[in-house]
Amino acid sequence: ELTNASLDISHFNHLGSDHAPVTLSFSLTSPPPLSVDHPRLLWHLSNLMAQKYAATFTEKVRPLKSKLANHVKALAETIDTTNISPPPIEDLAAELTGIIHSSLDKTVGRKKPKESGNAFFWTPVLQDLIDKRDKSYRLWKQASEGVGKGIKYKNYTAAKFLYKTELTRRRRETYALFLAKLSNGSFTDTTATIKRIKRTRTISPGFTHPAGPTAAAVEMSRHLRTVYAG
Prior knowledge:
Layout: E1 3-9, E2 22-27, E3 42-43, H1 50-77, H2 89-107, E4 110-111, H3 124-142, H4 147-184, H5 187-201, H6 213-228
Antiparallel strand pairs: 1-2, 3-4
Helix pairs in contact: 1-2, 3-4
């Protein structure tokens, strides 16, 4: 049951439709639960050795097996199950999850999640500026005709300029860091980086035909047959 509930029907934003947007509001009797950000856990599973992990897991799970056996024995010996408290399933599940995680930590070890390609480049300052630019753009587009629309357009152009300025500065900064890494890093890493850049920028030759890929394959096979037929 909702406390102090009210439903507001917007009759002026239906856009000629039979359906109208509604807004439901009510008072909270208790504070909302805190949102917990659970990080993604990764392990070097390619290094997983079944025998080593099984031995570690068996050793760590032995106390939990004793607890489960005691709970099962207590339930089996109890005739009247109405007055018996259920076993702490959530605590047992959390303990089992911790045993699995600790066994993986001991055998294969954890690894950090791979960051996205532009994670090193994007900064909170850039994110804040692009959010302000997008917000000012929406305010400008939604404004009615008049002086107010011109002011909002001016705010949008200013936010756009600040974002472009910071983006250019960040590009120059990251490029300078890249050059410093090539200059001060090991010779092996530097040559590997240069080879990778050269390989990705090399255009691979290809053969196409105006009639499509099937005609190109037929034409290439005919050409190779003519060349290697002697």
